[in-house]
């Protein structure tokens, strides 16, 4: 077993339970969750693996599974209602290349072997804008170290945020990790206001735009 990154004591998410599931959501969960669930320590799916961390209501993780049938997609999200939505989508579309973890992704990551991931998405992580809450942000040095252990050399990391302070915070930490490791993650330098190709959008991104904030995307290569 790998050692737990030392920042797991900070909760990075707010509520994990929202509204009680409807009878029909519960029925979908009962039927399809056992097939879709992945737990820490489970055998990983075959082939190149892409991980989406904090998929929210699931629109992007479903898009990945739908548009990349040859990839194994894993989504991690503690929020029950988001999980139920993603499970319904996967069931309705018959997606068989998607597995879902319900919980803190760090519990899943710590059990994963080195270099097992080809790509990781972290899209609009909870911003925790108040300075006394900044320590709850997911992008922390120990977390970057863990991502670096898991992403294979040449693999990529896509990070998006609409909070300039979080962007600065994250870039500072990626740079200092790269200096310390003599490699780390290298940003591709592309226009941060341009989303990746065929971008479907996410629920949180739409909310950010409605509220007048600008989303930024950063693609890094794991050296
Ligand atoms: C602001 S929302 C963005 C959701 C989605 N990516 C979007 O763009 O609509 C951040 C999400 O990250 C999830 N999250 C926070 N910490 C997490 C963790 N440690 N592991 C997995 N998911 C986490 C939250 O539950 C929440 O759904």
UniProtKB/TrEMBL annotation:
Keywords, comma-separated and alphabetical: Methyltransferase, S-adenosyl-L-methionine, Transferase, tRNA processing
N-terminal signal peptide: none
Gene3D superfamilies: Vaccinia Virus protein VP39 (3.40.50.150)
Residue positions binding S-adenosyl-L-methionine: 52, 77, 104, 126
PROSITE patterns: SAM_MT_TRMB (PS51625)
Region (Interaction with RNA): 132-137
Catalyzed reactions per annotation: guanosine(46) in tRNA + S-adenosyl-L-methionine = N(7)-methylguanosine(46) in tRNA + S-adenosyl-L-homocysteine
UniProt: substrate binding residues: 130, 162, 202-205
Pathway: tRNA modification; N(7)-methylguanine-tRNA biosynthesis
EC nos: 2.1.1.33
Function field: Catalyzes the formation of N(7)-methylguanine at position 46 (m7G46) in tRNA.
Family: Belongs to the class I-like SAM-binding methyltransferase superfamily. TrmB family.
Name of the protein: tRNA (guanine-N(7)-)-methyltransferase
């Amino acid at each position: 077993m790998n050692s737990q990154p030392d920042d797991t004591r900070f909760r990075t998410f707010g509520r994990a339970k929202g509204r009680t599931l409807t009878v029909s959501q519960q029925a979908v969960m009962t039927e399809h969750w056992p097939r879709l669930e992945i737990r820490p320590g489970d055998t990983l799916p075959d082939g190149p693996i892409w991980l989406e961390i904090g998929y929210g209501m699931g629109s992007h993780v479903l898009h990945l599974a739908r548009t990349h049938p040859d990839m194994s997609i894993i989504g991690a999200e503690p929020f029950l209602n988001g999980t139920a939505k993603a499970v319904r989508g996967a069931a309705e579309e018959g997606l068989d290349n998607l597995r879902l973890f319900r919980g803190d992704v760090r519990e899943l990551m710590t059990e994963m072997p080195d270099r097992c991931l080809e790509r990781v998405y972290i899209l609009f992580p909870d911003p925790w804008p108040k300075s006394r809450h900044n320590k709850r942000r997911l992008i922390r040095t120990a977390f970057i170290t863990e991502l670096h252990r898991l992403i294979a050399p040449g693999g990529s990391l896509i990070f998006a945020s609409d909070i300039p302070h979080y962007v600065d915070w994250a870039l500072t930490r990626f740079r200092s990790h790269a200096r310390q490791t003599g490699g780390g993650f290298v940003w591709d330098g592309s226009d941060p206001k341009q989303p990746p190709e065929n971008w479907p959008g996410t629920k949180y991104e739409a909310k950010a735009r409605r509220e007048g904030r600008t989303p930024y995307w950063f693609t890094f290569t794991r050296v």
